[in-house]
Design a protein that fits this description.
Layout lengths: L19 H4 L9 H4 L3 H20 L9 H7 L5 E3 L8 H7 L8 H24 L5 H25 L23 H18 L20 H14 L3 H13 L25 E4 L10 H8 L3 H6 L20 E3 L1 H11 L4 H6 E3 H8 L10 H5 L10 E2 L4 E3 L18 E4 H13 L7 H11 L10 H11 L6 H11 L16 E6 L3 E3 L12 E3 L15 E6 L20 H5 L12
Helix pairs in contact: 3-6, 3-7, 4-6, 6-7, 7-8, 7-9, 8-9, 9-10, 9-17, 10-17, 17-18, 17-19
Length: about 600
């Protein structure tokens, strides 16, 4: 299969009255629209252009310089993370989403909505122009484009409820409207359409050759179509159809969970194209793509700076990781739930999150270590937090921060779209909802691979929900699942963990580098920490590192999840609502 990333081909016509004779020269190097979409090579080139749009918009849509809206928008409005940073308001496009104080013009909402429809446009160019193609190449190109379009619409439905269904290239004056009757029944119907589209494309798609076929993870295969269909049907509450779509995928020998010892690699360059990946929009290691001619545009790059640990507020940096801007914090209630489920020493817990003391502070190697003993590290001025870490609890995100090995100029991670673990959990949920015990083996495979102390003896919906919360941490699933479960199960407590988002935000300190004001309580149970200024003596600092959390209350306005409003993102105000009278805004905006 040929795959090239090329610019979208376009033509331009110039008109001038005074100089018409001078311009009456045949254009060179230009292919007319009606002459381009003809051959198998044309189909491949058009599909490559669609993949180009997909790769750019899954990584950093619309020229975003420092953020991946896909990763941020679908992960931040959850009950497991904080929007963090150097201080309150740092990179506030993240805080707006995490704390539910954004509006219809919030940057992440606008960027991702536009980006998903750009993917749809690229796919529709292929489909419209080659839908009557007779060659196998053209049929395959159309099939790949149909699945791409189905996935984009699935994510639009998950994010915006009843967005427009765009199944052809629009004319300039077209003004589409919300899908169906813009209600819950229409939402389910749109998701069912996504599943049906993916299923219809399967006969014309190629299949991954084996679990060792790295190339087979970089384009749309039968396996990815099965994944899109299965996920769409689960969200459409059609569990029988979901099981039917996912069964061939979970039974396939062409995919496998990576072993426990490699559990974290799937998200990093070391795991590029591994056996667990179903589809990843990766271009990082393609030698044909230059740093400033595709690599930057299709990788996470500075988004990884935002998520990386804020090591410039530390006395030293752990050697294996790259520093960053500290823009993502782990909620302590999530960390404690993961530990209660898995056990503190489980490989998954250690791969997903790190406890600052002792893991980050003492157990990770630092370049300044030399032959230091633990006692020397505990008193070392080359370790610890010199000021504070805003938005950080005592547990730091580790699963998807850049390691030194990911610094492939530019730094990035695998741009994952689908992996087998999610397919297993989708299938297990569909089975649990239909009293089919076949899903238990796939739930157990996830639990056993995690090294978890919790291995289910029976398949229950609660067990699947719990496992998905932990396994799919920071993979764009949690908030979407909470919304879906609130609807499918009439779960009035689904959003309990979101109601106070933004009201209480932790800040992490190290008493070793702090001085203290007067004691607040006579029993000395509480002290007020102050950041040590350069001209202040360390009056009462401890002799060893003592890590502690202080809760901040930065938001004076209205924050937190509102039932009936925040289940879906708003349609972009200036970009959509102001120019399209046919659209109806989602409630509350």
């Amino acid at each position: 299969m040929k795959k090239y990333y090329i610019p979208v081909i376009c033509t331009a016509v110039l008109f001038a009255t005074a100089c018409e004779s001078k311009l009456d020269i045949p254009q060179k190097g230009v292919v007319a629209y009606e002459d381009f979409y003809q051959t198998d090579d044309d189909a491949e080139a058009a599909l490559a252009a669609a993949y180009d749009l997909f790769a750019q918009n899954i990584a950093r849509p619309n020229g975003e310089s420092i953020i991946s809206p896909f990763e941020a928008l679908f992960n931040l409005p959850g009950d497991d993370v904080y929007a963090a940073g150097e201080f309150y308001g740092d990179n506030d496009f993240n805080g707006q989403i995490n704390e539910f104080r954004g509006d219809a013009n919030s940057q992440l909402v606008v960027s991702m909505y536009k980006g998903l429809y750009q993917m749809v446009y690229g796919a529709n160019l292929v489909i419209d122009n080659f839908k009557n193609g007779t060659s196998q190449v053209q049929k395959r190109c159309v099939a790949e484009a149909r699945v791409m379009r189905a996935w984009a619409h699935m994510m639009l439905a998950i994010g915006w409820n009843c967005p427009p269904l765009i199944d052809h290239v629009l004319e300039g004056g077209d003004k589409p409207t919300n899908y169906g009757n813009n209600d819950y029944a229409s939402h389910l119907e749109l998701l069912k359409w996504c599943g049906d589209e993916a299923i219809a494309a399967i006969p014309d798609l190629d299949e991954r050759e084996s679990a060792n076929d790295k190339k087979g993870t970089t384009y749309i295969t039968k396996g990815f179509a099965q994944f899109v269909a299965g996920k769409s049907y689960v969200f459409a509450n059609d569990m029988a159809a979901a099981k039917s779509a996912l069964k061939p995928l979970v039974e396939s020998t062409k995919y496998a969970l990576v072993p426990t010892a490699r559990i974290r690699e799937t998200f990093h360059l070391a795991g590029e194209g591994n056996e667990e990946i179903i589809f990843a929009s990766n271009v990082t290691n393609n030698p044909a793509i230059g740093k400033w001619n595709g690599k930057i545009q299709k990788g996470y790059w500075m988004h990884m700076d935002i998520w990386g640990w804020r090591t410039d507020h530390w006395a030293g940096k752990p050697a294996p990781v790259l520093g960053g801007w500290g823009g993502l914090g782990v909620r302590e209630d999530f960390a404690e739930a993961l530990i209660a489920n898995d056990g503190y020493n489980s490989p998954r817990r250690q791969a997903w999150i790190k406890q600052f003391d002792p893991e980050v502070l003492y157990e990770m190697p630092y370049t300044t270590d030399g032959e230091m003993t633990l006692e020397q590290k505990q008193a070392s001025e080359d370790r610890g937090i010199t000021s504070y870490l805003y938005g950080q609890s005592q547990y730091l995100h580790y699963k998807r921060i850049c390691d030194v090995a990911d610094n492939d100029d530019p730094r990035t991670l695998n741009v994952l779209v689908a992996r087998l673990a999610e397919a297993y959990l989708l299938y297990a949920e569909a089975c649990a909802r239909t009293s089919d015990n076949d899903g238990l083996q796939y739930l157990n495979r996830i639990q056993n691979r995690a090294g978890s102390q919790t291995v289910s003896a029976a398949l229950t919906l609660d067990a699947v929900k719990s496992e998905k919360r932990f396994e799919m941490f920071m993979e764009g699933c949690r908030f979407a699942d909470l919304v879906r479960w609130s609807q499918q199960d009439n779960d009035t407590h689904a959003f309990d963990g979101l109601l106070d988002n933004g009201k209480n935000v932790p800040q992490l300190y190290d008493q070793f580098f702090q001085r203290f004001d007067t004691l607040k309580n006579e029993d000395k149970s509480y002290v007020m920490p102050l950041v040590l200024k350069s001209n202040q003596p360390r009056e009462t600092k401890t002799d060893t590192h003592v890590i502690y959390v202080e809760m901040q209350h930065p938001n004076l306005g209205e924050v937190g999840f509102k039932v009936g409003k925040h289940e879906y993102f708003p349609f972009p105000g200036a970009a959509v609502m102001a120019i399209n009278p046919n659209m109806n805004q989602n409630p509350g905006y």
